[in-house]
Design brief:
alpha/beta, TIM Barrel, 3 domains, 8-stranded mixed beta barrel, 21 helices
Amino acid sequence: MNPNLYIARQPILCSDESIFAFELLYRDSNKSSKIQDDREATVAVLSNVLNKFGVKNLLGDKKAFIKADKNFLMHEVVFYIPKEYFIFSLQASMNLTDALKERIIELSELGYTLAINDVLLTKEVLKSFNSLLEYITYIKVDINSTEQNLELLKEIATQVIFTKVETHELYDKAKKHHAKLVQGFFFSKPKVLEQEKFDPQSLRAVELCNFMMSDASIDEIVLKFEQNHAISLQLLKYVNSGLFHFRHTISSIRQVLTLMGRTPLTQWLMLMMYSTKTNQSEQESETALMQLLKSRTDLMVETSKQLKDTNVQNLTSKVYFLGVLSLLDALFNANIRRVLDELNIDIEIKDAIIDGKGVLGEILLFAKSLENFDIKEVENFCQKYRINTQVLEDLSLEVIRSANEFELSRRENS
C-alpha cells in the first residue's frame, strides 16, 4: 500500500437529497498538484479497496464513480474491476483515438457503466463525444457552466449529474435545469431563509444532551428520558439492533445507562438531533447529512487521539461535541451564531466553530479540508502534528466503514 495515498468520498444525491452514489477521490501526496498518472492512482485505490478494506465497507450498498484516463481504460486491468460497484468517469479532454473509442464501446457492451467526468459544458465537449453518447450513461456537468451552454443538455439523452453544487442558490440553478442528480455539500449549509423556531424534537434532544453532561443522578436522567417517549423508543430500538451484542434484550432506559455509560449515550443523543424525521421520504433525504455528521465526528475524534501536548482538557470529548455542533446550522436552518447563543455553548468551542481558533478549530478545519479534498490543508495539519499518512489513511477508511454501518443500522430501525 502506498503510505502517501489520500482517499475520500463525496456524495452524489438524488432530487430528494437521498444518496445515489459516491465519487471516490484519491491523490498521491508526493505529487505537487493533481495526479499526473491517473492509471497508477486508480489501480492503487482499487487495489486497496478490493484487497484490504473491502468494497462494501467503503461504499455500503452504493456505487462509486472513479476517474479513468486513456492509459487506465486501455490497460487489461480494467476488466478485473467489478462493474456492479464502479462507474468509470472519462476525462472530457481525452484524445479519442479509434482504439479508445472501440474500448469504450466494448466496455459498455460488457455491462460497464461509463460517465464523462466533471466538465464545464461547451458545444465542443458534446461534439467530441457525440458518436459515443449512446454508450455513456452519465455526464457530470459543472453547475458553473453558462446558462447558454446548459441549454445544450436538452439535446442529449445522457443522464446529467450537476457538480460543485455547494450552495442552495446553485442547487436552485440545477433544479431549474431539471436536475435529478447533484454532487456537492449544499445540504450541509443553511438556506438563506431561516425558520422562526427550531425543530421541537431536536431541541428536546439538545436539552437531554445538556442534562446528560451535567452532574444529574441516574434517577434524574431516567426521568428525563421517560418524559421524552419518542427519543426513548428510538434509543431502545438502537441498542437492540445488530450493532450491539448484549446477552439479553434491553427493555429500560436504566439498563441502557448501566450498560452503555453516560458518554456513549450522550454521543448517541447528539446524533439523534439530526435524525428526527417522521416519514420515510424525510428519513431518506436526511441520509447525506447524517453520513457527513458521523464521518466528520468520528474522524475528528480519532484524529484528536493522535495529537500530543495540546494543553486542551478533555480534548476528545470536546472534539466530538464540536463536530456535532458544527452542522447544527444546517439542521436548524439558522445562522450558526444564533444556534450557539441559544444553546449557551462554551466560548472555546464557539470560537473554534465560528473563527477556527485554537487546536479545536484546527481539527475542525482539517476534517472539512479532507471532506473537500483540500490536500494542502490536510498535509499542513498532518505535518504540524506529526500524523503519519498511513495512520491517516487507515483512520479515513475506518471512519467511512463506521458511517456505513451506522446508516445501515439506522435504516433497519427507522
